[in-house]
Amino acid sequence: MKVDAFFEGGGILGISFIGAYKALTDHGIYIDKAIGISCGAILATLITAGFSANELITLLNVYKDFSFLKQKTQTSKRNYIGKPLSLLLNKGIYDSYIIEKFIDKTLKQKKISTFGDVMSLGESKLKMIAADFTNKRMLLLPDDLPLYGYDPMEFKIAKAIRMSCAIPFFYTPYELKSTHKSNYIIDGGVIRNIPTSVINKNQELSKLTLRFKIKGSRNKWFNSFKDIQNTLKYNKDNTSYEKHIIINTDGRLKITDFEVSREQIIYLYREGYKAVYQFIKHELL
């Protein structure tokens, strides 16, 4: 059975999506098109690139934790005034480039680099959402890249993920340059009420689409960006094809707790698996 999938954000809690993906494939359910926000964009990308659930589990076991994703900017490394100064000058404490570097290295395992590598019949099977803070609008990648003068076929997926994962004030925003202008791109999680149909160019959903959400994963700082959220206008979804899967966590981990223990990683994985198993048991069987 083939479905489309929408993975919302959640920072380090997104490890649970790997468990969810494993549960799907264990029950013969495979993902065709995928869209994601923030950490959800990472999982959507790895699935589209051809990583199996077992390969992602292996990848998960390579790392003791994910603290390497917290690489301070040069400014924030200064004693005492480093962090506030970096917020002022760099608009973030940690350098978002480390995300791009990590994803680019991982995708090379599958010989994937640009959106052109995941195109089918002229459309990308992978999409992700970021927020253009400069112009106060949602950014759908790769579809909206021509608005900024970029060819989607040649644009690196790792850069797009960096945009979608740039948690405000935590990571530095991505500077997307267009003619005579710099546009600062931040985490797509600041945008509320994004319809699932965005995966299908806002057309009615044509197949079962599973939307994954991690309960309690919204960052408190995201509420500061309502001016971006309120600009979005979309048609209503075709809910007959849309199913939501909520992954519950105990609330003890924050989305930026990248120094997770092995026990916490296993816990998140199991919660994702359990959520999908229960969904299949009660909704599909």
Care to describe what's here?
With 285 residues, the chain is an alpha/beta fold. The protein has one domain: Cytosolic phospholipase A2 catalytic domain (3-Layer(aba) Sandwich), CATH 3.40.1090. It is 30% helix and 21% strand. The chain contains eight helices and twelve strands. The protein has helices at 16-26, 39-48, 53-62, 82-90, 97-107, 157-164, 226-229, 262-284, and strands spanning 2-7, 30-37, 92-94, 119-120, 123-124, 126-132, 137-141, 169-171, 174-178, 181-187, 209-214, 242-247. The strands form three sheets. Strands 1, 2, 6, 7, 9, 10, 11 and 12 form an eight-stranded mixed sheet that branches. The protein has a two-stranded parallel sheet with strand order 3-8. α1 links the parallel β1 (2-7) and β2. α1 packs antiparallel against α3 (53-62) and α5 (97-107) packs across α6 (157-164). The protein starts with a strand and ends with a helix.
How many domain units?
1
Beta percentage is 15-25%
Largest sheet: 8 strands, mixed
Which regions have little confidence, pLDDT < 50, spanning 5+ residues? none
**Named CATH topology:** Cytosolic phospholipase A2 catalytic domain
Structural class computed from helices and strand pairing = alpha/beta
Order of helices and strands: EHEHHHEHEEEEHEEEEHEH
